[in-house]
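ok so i was messing around last nite and threw this chain in just to see what happens. nothing serious, just curious
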Amino acid sequence: MMIRRVAFKPSLSLINKFLFSNSQLLHNSYSTTTNTLPYISLSNCNKNAFGVRYFSTSSSSRTPSKESSDSSRISVVPEPPYYTVTSGYHLFHHPEVFNLELGGQLPSFQLAYETWGTLSPKKDNVVLIHTGLSASSHAKSHEGNTHLGWWEEFIGPGRPIDTNQFYVVCSNLLGGCYGSTGPSSTNPLTGKPYATVFPFITVGDMVTAQFKLLSHLGVEKLYASIGSSLGGMQSIMAAALFPNRVQRVISISAAGRSHPMSIAFRYVQRRALMDDPLWHHGRYQEKGVKPLMGMKLAREIGTISYRSGPEWEERFNRLKVHPGSPPTFSPDFQIEGYLDKQGSKLSTEYDPNSLLYISKAMDMFDMSLPPSKEEINDNEKIALSAQERFEKGVSRVKCPTMILGVQSDILFPVWQQGEIADILQKYGTSVTYFEIKSKYGHDTFLIDTQTVGSAIKGHLEAFFCYNC
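result:
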């Protein structure tokens, strides 16, 4: 994929001028013939071989301090908030049997969800936010739960997802542990936790469950489907599975199918968890224990894939936790202390079996159309048609789509986002591709409110007309 990059550092004044106020510019950015930069009018902008509008932007917000003290080095960059969510959400209960993509069934299920903003009389201003692997429905604080949400700065009046205009819905995904049905839930057929009897689920199952929730709320069509990481997989899959119910898509740091490196990262996370003796083949709840060491190690491995070497070089370098002390096998370098802290925190806040099932769903994710009966019996034919089946699967997305990637992301490398954008453009879908030059790696979508938020706001408000 040949793309010429444009380096650009957005200032807040420029963002306000060109993104938040100029709706005509935003409308023009969807033209398939213009060479203008999407959302920001710069003359030096190019398209790639498929005509996808493309630019690279340097993220300059929240630059870490150069101070070398222990506390400043470890705490300068805000970290995503993780804590057990037990209140402040609504529950949608689906009382009927839910058939799953891989052949399993759930006798019933429930989804925890939260909302912000006001639903328009026509119910046409709904924005659905899909979560990542370990996030809850609590994306934004509110009266029912005043804790900061995991996307706190992105949602609210005047924010990138403006609750003065949009009715925002976020649910804890199927398989989760923050109110939605998952492995830790009670199986109504046995009265015991599902544990590893819980059936394997797919990203498609998660999306289908969410659309059951939307139907319950009386919402026939989404104004937008938005998500990052696993949420970005869901957001684009929603438009593929329900093309008549999704008007626009924002997919951030995601992919149309998992690649071997990301599968490898998640595999060793699961192995670390399952090798903890306290896992008890998934039956730790019945034993009254929890595989904390396995969860801690799994999270530490995950954290390595979520951030980037350049950030840690600047943030930690080779600084010691206790300068001048003799070496030990405990955290000695500050980067080790950081990983230790991150692992310890999530190990007590998240259900281990949910990590297994949801991470496996990510590994299995592939938007490709299934092979025909002829292809199933002909391995050579399957190999020859694999790319075509993938492209046709992605091309089911027909609505205006924004794809955003981060150059330092090693978990979902930018070529995967570019691949989606190229395919959509090839099949005639209106698509805009943003590539951010940021040192924060995969977690950029949680940290860089200014750059990521600007792109989100621009795409959402390009055609917005409240209640008209």
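not much to say yet. The two ends are 40 Å apart (CA to CA).
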